[in-house]
Specification:
Layout: H1 4-20, H2 27-35, E1 44-49, H3 54-67, E2 72-75, E3 87-89, E4 92-93, H4 96-109, H5 119-133, E5 138-142, E6 159-162, H6 170-173, H7 177-184, E7 194-196, H8 201-213, E8 218-220, E9 225-228, E10 233-237, E11 242-245, H9 253-267, H10 276-285, E12 293-295, E13 300-303, H11 309-323, E14 328-332, H12 340-347, E15 353-356, H13 367-372, E16 380-382, H14 386-396, E17 402-406, H15 409-432
Parallel strand pairs: 1-5, 1-6, 2-5, 6-7, 7-8, 13-17, 14-15, 14-17, 15-16
Antiparallel strand pairs: 2-3, 3-4, 9-10, 10-11, 12-13
Helix pairs in contact: 1-5, 2-5, 3-9, 3-10, 4-5, 7-8, 11-12, 14-15
Length: 433
């Protein structure tokens, strides 16, 4: 059970988000960090941006560096279930006591001095300070939103990574692929190598032009490197081939993500040597819950935090292989600022029924509005209680059917404890037989 101090600190942090929202400037973060002795400069960093795949790639790089024996930090957002998931060293999440202590220190260095950090800025400073306090050798830093003005963009990384570029967060990043690319390219630094996943021609043009201005070499998927095969694959590129690669994460798109992660590791080899066996060990051990997560049972449950049209298309491409001929009953919620109609257009043809719920009160789209946009021939049910809706589906859908939970990582975070309990129940049942 969480301590009273920790609960109060989280309440204070979340109040920052409600009061200040998102205000993209780097000056506040830089000044707060300066007052704390610039902890972000006390370890090496890898900086990862992208519309989709950045979390998976960050987790893979982190797992590989851990397997190689480095004391490795990981900063991600958002969390699924607990705030502490955002900041970890190795497999150790930041503790409640450490969160409380760091908030007090940062308030002394920032808030008390008139530096009014936003929620994400405050947590970013917390992560950088925690990694320094814990003597991290390297930290994998996932961009929160965009790149150019993201609070994480105060580091001097060994390598920058752009996993993919598609339309998302248009209110902040613009309504064209080129404008989104320009924002994400803001993490590119002078003479720092750039690893790029599969992107379209318009985005690639922006990346190449930005990298040229910064005299940064671009290493691109399917041009400079690739990973072939879904099982026991082979990485080709950047000096030498690497065979017998197995992936813990499900989905064909994770093959592309793994190629980006391996290329990144190869490019930091001068500063952080990693043996081939550590790459294999990291990729087979990496965990990234809530992304194409599956419980094979009756019914099957598929949980995926796809939250934009591009991610939904990737999810749908995997459904035939995962679900087979099962009827799919979808539990869906989405944030109000997302392009949810194209998401539904892709998902609905695969759904035997749809249950609509609320992803995050205040920021989630009204499920009744979603219901009005769905083909009247598709059975639709509205239940504002996400966990209750999930439990209801578990008890009502037919044996041999499948439940798909998707549309928002916030929805996944709400139902994930129930999902995990279901997994434990099935494991216990199998073990007892």
């Amino acid at each position: 059970m969480a301590t009273t101090e920790f609960v109060e600190v989280l309440r204070w942090l979340y109040a920052l988000e409600a009061a200040r929202g998102m205000d993209f400037k780097l000056e506040r973060v830089a000044l707060a960090l300066k007052n704390l002795g610039d902890p972000q400069n006390r370890y090496r960093c890898v900086h990862v941006a992208g519309t989709n795949g950045k979390g998976s790639v960050s987790a893979m790089i982190h797992a590989i560096l851990n397997a190689a024996g480095y004391r490795t930090g990981l900063y991600i957002s958002p969390h699924l279930v607990t705030f502490q998931e955002r900041i970890r060293i190795g497999s150790q999440l930041i503790s409640e006591q450490q969160v409380v202590h760091l908030v007090q220190r940062i308030r002394g260095a920032a808030t008390v001095r008139g530096i009014e950090l936003t929620y994400f800025e405050f947590v970013t400073v917390m992560a950088f300070l925690h990694f320094a306090d814990e003597s991290a050798e390297v930290a994998v830093i996932e961009v929160g939103l965009g790149g150019r003005l993201d609070a994480t963009n105060v580091i001097s990384p060994l390598v920058t990574v752009i996993t993919s570029i598609d339309l998302d967060h248009e209110d902040y990043l613009g309504n064209s692929i080129e404008s989104v690319a320009a924002e994400k390219c803001g993490i590119i630094k002078a003479a720092v190598p750039v690893v790029v996943g599969r992107v379209g021609a318009g985005a690639r043009t922006v990346i190449d032009e930005t990298a040229r201005r910064h005299q940064a070499r671009v290493w691109s998927a399917n041009e400079d490197f690739h990973l072939s095969g879904a099982t026991k694959g082979t990485f080709v590129g950047l000096g030498s081939d690497l065979e017998n690669i197995s992936l813990a994460l499900r989905g064909r798109f994770q093959i592309e993500n793994a190629a980006v992660a391996i290329a990144t590791i190869r490019l930091v080899a001068a500063a952080l040597p990693v043996a081939d066996q550590a790459i294999r060990a990291g990729l087979v051990a990496v965990e990234w819950p809530g992304r194409l997560d599956v419980i094979v049972g009756e019914p099957m449950v598929i949980v995926d935090g796809a939250h934009n049209p591009s991610a939904v298309r990737r999810l749908v491409a995997e459904l035939p292989e995962i679900a087979g001929g099962r009827k799919i009953h979808m539990l869906f919620a989405v944030m109000r600022d997302k392009r949810w109609q194209p998401m539904l257009d892709v998902l609905i043809p695969h759904a035997a029924s749809v249950t609509l719920t609320t992803a995050l009160p205040g920021r989630g789209e009204d499920p009744s509005r979603l219901a009005a946009a769905i083909d009247p021939n598709v059975p639709v049910h509205v239940n504002d209680d996400a966990v209750g809706a999930f439990e209801e589906l578990l008890g009502s859908v037919g044996e041999g059917d499948a439940i798909l939970v998707t549309g928002s990582l916030f929805l996944v975070g709400q139902v994930y404890p129930a999902f995990a309990r279901r997994r434990q129940q099935l494991s216990a049942h199998v073990s007892a037989q």
